[in-house]
Design brief:
The chain is of the alpha/beta class and 133 residues long.
Amino acid sequence: MNIALIAHDKKKDDIVSFAIAYEKVLKKHNLFATGTTGLKISENTTLDIKRFNSGPLGGDQQIGAMIAVNNMDIVIFFRDPLTAQPHEPDVLALLRLCDVHRIPLATNMGSAELLIKGMQRGDLSWRKNKKTI
């Protein structure tokens, strides 16, 4: 499966902790991340991650492009709801694409853990038979 890992600045430590905790699971999949998030995860794990630009410099849109052509299966985006983001329109566009294309989306540690555990059980096997819209 193709999995995107994204985190706002104040949530980067959380996504690194998540990646460390689920490294054995994540290692079995194709991982993509926005620039700084991917760098921090790479520095703290042995995961192989394809890094895009940072979110404000177009990384959210690059991941969105993958979603739009049905090349992303899961998005894990640890958002900071208490800090204004200068690229909020890009963030909202990414979330909208997940909804339009039925891409499972986790925006915090709790939902990410449920999503990963479900993936481990095979609950997302329907994504293997995905059809391009």
